[in-house]
């Protein structure tokens, strides 16, 4: 019986430690990596790094996304930040939310065309989708699926279709667009040409972001500082066992 | 207790990482080499390539100003050495100086380099002990460059051909 009890205690301790590690270390690091890579482009000519700071519209999109996370129970704000939690836990949780906010902004930045009419078209469709979602019923799983499809579509449009349209060697799509839009200026659809590595970086960034959101559902399953509570409980239990024996 | 350790470690680690990301976006390095150079500047261990600096100085004395600047830019890729930036500004001054008129573009670039040198030497006054130069401080060089960029009635004076290059 004591062996079983000790094993159960160890399992609970390990679980709570792993959750704390995920919540306070892994997820912020992951979201910060998305923040770093979301604005990274590679120049097509000299393969130099170009860091694109998040445009104002991406911050707005991230603001619209945060209530969706709360409504979808991906973020359990009332359990993460509360007056009965220790100040350190509250600070850590707010910090995690901040990293999630900037990762969201940079994930949008990664799939938005950098300038021109397409930038505003993409921004408008993102805004429209997120605004409509504010009034839909969501759970964590449906929200994740919806976001994966949203980012996936934008990724395909920007890094496959548009990249082909603006490639210097002139892909099939460029010839097709040239034939269709003969006589129409593409000046308003102007977009900078980046090296193919930019697409790979964006793919990796979005994969990390979605993985982070999936992990977030695991992190929000339990109280964030339950390792402390578990330890206190274990001490009380061992004291009781000692008294009985 | 272990949870508290994880929280503190996580906060410290991620705040440091966030600071690194802000620094990268602020400095906008173009290559991994520039990242390393910027890090050296940030940590105070940055040193210019003395060989290239000397090669630039030799070219400067032979009045090959563009080649000299090219060498100095390679010697100080991070533009983090006040002395090198002073010499770059001086080469712009000497190349842009003319008996009849001053090249405004070169003087403007010279002033930018002089300002960089002034910012880098903000804590201590930089005195260049070089007998081949007639101006030894950033203030003198800046004043000369600024004066050259100003428009005044003295510009039409025929006596200005008697001015001497410093």
Class computed from helices, strands and strand pairing of chain B: mainly alpha
Integer average pLDDT of chain A: 82
Largest sheet properties of chain B: none
How many strand elements of chain A?
2
Structural class of chain A: mainly alpha
Globally, the shape of chain B reads elongated
Tally of helical segments of chain A: 9
Distance between the termini of chain B: 70 Å
Remind me, CATH topology of the largest domain in chain B? Serine Threonine Protein Phosphatase 5, Tetratricopeptide repeat
CATH architecture heading of the largest domain in chain B: Alpha Horseshoe
Bin the helical content of chain A. Answer: over 70%
Structure description:
The complex is a heterodimer of chains A (245) and B (166). Chain A has helices spanning 2-38, 56-71, 77-80, 87-111, 116-133, 140-165, 172-180, 197-219, 226-244, and strands spanning 40-42, 49-51. Chain A has 245 residues and is mainly α. Chain A has one domain (2-244). Chain A has a two-stranded antiparallel ribbon with strand order 1-2. In chain A, helix 6 (140-165) runs antiparallel to helix 8 (197-219). The mean pLDDT of chain A is 82. By secondary structure, chain B is an all-alpha fold. Chain B folds into two domains: 2-43; 50-162, Serine Threonine Protein Phosphatase 5, Tetratricopeptide repeat. Chain B has seven helices and no strands. Chain B has helices at residues 2-27, 32-43, 50-61, 65-75, 82-96, 104-120, 138-149. The termini of chain B are far apart. The model of chain B has no long low-confidence stretch (mean pLDDT 88).
């Amino acid at each position: 019986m004591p062996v079983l009890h000790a094993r159960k205690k160890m399992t609970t301790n390990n679980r709570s430690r792993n959750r704390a590690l995920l919540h306070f270390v892994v997820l912020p690091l992951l979201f910060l990596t998305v923040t770093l890579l979301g604005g990274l482009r590679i120049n097509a000519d000299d393969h130099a790094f170009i860091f694109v700071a998040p445009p104002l519209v991406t911050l707005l999109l991230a603001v619209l996304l945060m209530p969706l996370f709360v409504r979808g129970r991906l973020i359990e704000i009332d359990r993460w930040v509360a007056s009965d939690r220790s100040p350190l836990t509250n600070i850590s949780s707010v910090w995690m939310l901040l990293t999630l906010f900037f990762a969201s902004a940079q994930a949008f930045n990664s799939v938005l065309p950098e300038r021109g009419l397409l930038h505003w078209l993409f921004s408008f469709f993102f805004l429209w989708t997120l605004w409509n979602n504010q009034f839909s019923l969501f759970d964590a799983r449906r929200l994740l699926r919806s976001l994966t499809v949203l980012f996936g579509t934008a990724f395909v449009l920007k890094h496959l279709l548009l990249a082909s349209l603006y490639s210097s060697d002139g892909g099939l799509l460029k010839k097709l667009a040239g034939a269709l839009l003969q006589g129409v200026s593409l000046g308003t659809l102007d977009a900078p040409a980046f090296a193919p590595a930019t697409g790979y970086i964006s793919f990796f960034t979005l994969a990390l972001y979605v993985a982070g959101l999936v992990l977030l559902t695991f992190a929000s399953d339990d109280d964030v500082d339950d390792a402390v509570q578990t330890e206190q409980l274990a001490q009380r239990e061992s004291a009781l066992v000692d008294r009985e024996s | 207790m272990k949870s508290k350790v994880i929280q503190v470690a996580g906060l410290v680690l991620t705040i440091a990482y966030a600071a690194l990301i802000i620094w990268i976006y602020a400095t906008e390095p173009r290559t991994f080499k520039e990242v390393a150079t910027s890090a050296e500047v940030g940590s105070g261990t940055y040193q210019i390539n003395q060989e290239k600096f000397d090669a630039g100085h030799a070219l400067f004395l032979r009045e090959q100003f563009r080649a000299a600047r090219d060498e100095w830019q390679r010697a100080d890729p991070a533009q983090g050495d006040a002395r090198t930036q002073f010499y770059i500004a001086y080469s712009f001054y000497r190349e842009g100086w003319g008996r009849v008129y001053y090249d405004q573009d070169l003087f403007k670039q010279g002033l930018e380099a002089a300002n960089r040198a002034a910012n880098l030497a903000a804590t201590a006054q930089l005195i260049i002990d070089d007998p081949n130069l007639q101006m030894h401080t950033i203030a003198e060089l800046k004043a000369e460059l600024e004066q050259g960029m100003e428009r005044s009635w003295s510009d039409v004076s025929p006596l200005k051909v008697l001015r001497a290059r410093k």
